[in-house]
Amino acid sequence: MQKLPRDKANDYTRDMATQRRDLVTEETRAELNHVGSYSFDPAVLPGNIENFSGVAQVPMGFAGPMLVNGEHAEGEFYVPMATTEGTLLASYSRGMRLTREAGGITTTVIDDAMQRAPVFSFTDARAALKFGRWVEENFEAIKAKAEETTTAGKLRNIEQYAAAKMRWLRFNFTCGDAAGQNMVSKATRHACMWMLDQGIPDLEHFSLAANFDTDKKHSFVNTLHTRGKRAVAEITLPAELVRDVMNTTPEALFNQRQFSNMGALMAGSVCNGAHFANGITAMFIACGQDVANVAESSAGIVYSEVTDKGDYYFAATIPSLVVATYGGGTGLPTQRECLEVLGCYGKGGVHKFAEIVAATVLCGELSLASAIVADEWVSSHDDLGRNRP
After folding, report:
1. What is the pTM of this model?
2. Is 290 labeled as catalytic in the residue annotation?
3. In whole angstroms, what is the distance from residue 270 CA to residue 318 CA?
4. Catalytic site residue from 290, 305, 337, 340
5. Which domains can be identified in the chain, with CATH numbers?
6. Does residue 204 have an active-site annotation?
7. How many other CB atoms sit within 10 Å of the CB of residue 161?
8. d(CA 380, CA 376)
9. Annotation marks residue 85 as catalytic
10. Out of 22, 111, 147, 381, which one is annotated catalytic?
11. Rounded distance between C-alpha atoms, residue 338 and residue 329, angstroms
12. Three-point CA angle 260, 298, 268, nearest 5°
């Protein structure tokens, strides 16, 4: 096969995209008419993609309105969701109707941290322990070095984890409105290079990353200590409203929740919810997030109670919600429009966006659970989710 054409001087033009599509069509005989139909100038894409050739168009709709009573997100929102799964927006909209009529969803961002976790390996465990104490004693100097590379990133603390003669340092940063993975990589490396220059006794090996930060994958350390934003959405639903809108009862939903908890436990799942990933992925695509971060962002914790009055308290916690409203894909034309619909684009919007995502997840969890309990799950997919030739 031929090499894809590239212009070293200016590779982000319609002409270069056309040349690459033409070559692929010549080699594969596949027509790329829809791939080549897009409305924005390719000049906006440096830093977002290489070998730009066109677009993968995903259908997008709005769910809602959804009423949120958050610290940062306050009011009603139309939620942009991009998906190819029929019934998804209808289901989320039903959950939004239920929660809106109940007075809205309370949302809170309770923690915020992005990590890089380098590993230092020594001649023995005693040397690793001595190094760990040195890190504690010199934290302020390490923090100052790390923050030389960024205006937005702030080193909050350094966790330490030991095994054999190795010691992982989990650098925790706040990153403003950026997701921050690249920001913290650069800052952590800069700090570590300074640490190495000080002369670390008995050090055998150093690596900037050794899988403990669990980038683009979930882990139990993220559940306990947070990666990205730790967001909680919660609501108490009147029993009568549950019956009228969802065709079920708080007691039936609570019983189903116990079965779901047991199923998740037996399966070894990192999430006891039904489908956190559905709402998060649809919003991530629409709003210019790094979609691979769904791997950690979709792991979560669901908790419910039937109150003394017979109403239904329900909460969804997302411990590793990796989101941004500045940088990355958030500034691309359609993605920016979707963030602007939510009033979240740019600086100062990330906690608001995190609360809206968490509230959306809660609506989806309530709707799907109700559909299963009321035996409406299969019929709704038959009505809305069939697209077959």
Report:
1. 0.94
2. yes
3. 11
4. 290
5. 10-57 (no CATH), 60-111+219-384 (3.90.770.10), 118-207 (3.30.70.420)
6. no
7. 14
8. 6
9. yes
10. 381
11. 12
12. 45
One DSSP character per residue, 229-283 reads EEEEEEEEE-HHHHHHHHSS-HHHHHHHHHHHHHHHHHHT-S--SS-HHHHHHHH
Determine which one of 74, 85, 159, 340 is catalytic.
85
Q: What's the Cα-to-Cα distance from 266 to each of 184, 203, 260, 274, rounded to whole Å?
A: 36, 42, 10, 15
What one-letter code names the amino acid at 378? V
As given in the structure block, the two tokens for residue 345 are: 């684009």
Token representation of residue 8: 């070293």
The two tokens of residue 68 are 């949120």
The pair of three-digit structure tokens given for residue 125, joined into one six-digit string: 């465990």
pLDDT tens sequence for the chain (389 residues) = 999 999 999 999 999 999 999 999 999 999 999 999 999 999 999 999 999 999 999 999 999 999 999 999 999 999 999 999 999 999 999 999 999 999 999 999 999 999 999 999 999 999 999 999 999 999 999 999 999 999 999 999 999 999 999 999 999 999 999 999 999 999 999 999 999 999 999 999 999 999 998 889 888 999 999 999 999 999 999 999 999 999 999 999 999 999 999 999 999 998 999 999 999 999 999 999 999 999 999 999 999 999 999 999 999 999 999 999 999 999 999 999 999 999 999 999 999 999 999 999 999 999 999 999 987 756 555 555 555 55
